[in-house]
């Protein structure tokens, strides 16, 4: 493959320039319609070797090293508004195995924040302020926001989950050890499914709903590798 590409490039150089030992190289115009076909193959072969994640394949992607000013940035939280903290805390702790890292109550504005995550809360400082700072230093937490009174309001219709029109936000994702065993357990616990791992074309991934209807993708590393291999 490499040798034929080099030959094509050599042929092109002879077409573009007439060599003389006594005179400088003189360009000879060629029609684009007559350009060697093998050059096109050579260029496309090189392009196909560029990773999909390269800036060459992703217009707008910053191609240099991250700005020094962003050093230390990381994804810290995703916020969900919830209707009833009692129900949501049970789901995220008992069903998904998260811990409550920190609770903040804003009495003047009548709302509370519950930060859920997979960090060990035993590692948190005992001082309330220091524990808040510690919590905001943990990666990938869920911030459950409760506006007081919604749990007892008969007229409250719930929150938009982003998966009905107009669509926007989609879901969060949880990695598990075995997607099929995890979903068998979810079924026993009465969790609502959007998609079970054996449903549809994308075998091996599932979607469940939390108590407020937000979607959560469930997958294991083996399944996600298999499902996405054709798109990688």
TrEMBL record:
Binds 1 zinc ion per subunit. In the homodimer, two zinc ions are bound between subunits. Its cofactor is Zn(2+). It holds the Pfam family Glyoxalase. Its EC number is 4.4.1.5. It catalyses: (R)-S-lactoylglutathione = methylglyoxal + glutathione. GO terms for molecular function: lactoylglutathione lyase activity; metal ion binding. Keywords: Lyase, Metal-binding, Zinc. The keyword Nucleotidyltransferase does not apply. Belongs to the glyoxalase I family. Catalyzes the conversion of hemimercaptal, formed from methylglyoxal and glutathione, to S-lactoylglutathione. This is Lactoylglutathione lyase. It comes from Kingdonia uniflora.
């Amino acid at each position: 493959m490499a040798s034929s590409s080099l030959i094509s490039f050599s042929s092109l150089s002879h077409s573009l320039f007439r060599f003389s030992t006594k005179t400088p190289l003189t360009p000879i115009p060629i029609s684009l319609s007559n350009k060697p076909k093998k050059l096109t193959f050579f260029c496309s072969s090189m392009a196909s070797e560029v990773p999909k994640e390269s800036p060459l394949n992703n217009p707008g992607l910053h191609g240099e090293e991250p700005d020094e000013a962003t050093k230390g940035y990381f994804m810290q939280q995703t916020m969900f508004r919830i209707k009833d903290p009692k129900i949501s805390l049970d789901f995220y702790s008992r069903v998904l195995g998260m811990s409550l890292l920190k609770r903040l109550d804003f009495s003047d504005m009548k709302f509370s924040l519950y930060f859920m995550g997979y960090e060990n809360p035993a590692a948190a400082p005992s001082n309330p302020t220091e524990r808040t700072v510690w919590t905001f230093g943990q990666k990938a937490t869920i911030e459950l926001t409760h506006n007081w009174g919604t749990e007892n309001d008969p007229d409250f219709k719930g929150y938009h989950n982003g998966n009905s029109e107009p669509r926007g936000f989609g879901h969060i994702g949880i990695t598990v050890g075995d997607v099929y065993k995890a979903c068998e357990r979810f079924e026993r616990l009465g969790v609502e499914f959007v998609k079970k791992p054996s449903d549809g074309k994308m075998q091996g991934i599932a979607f469940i709903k939390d108590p407020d209807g937000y979607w959560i993708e469930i997958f294991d590393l083996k399944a996600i590798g298999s499902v996405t291999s054709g798109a990688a």
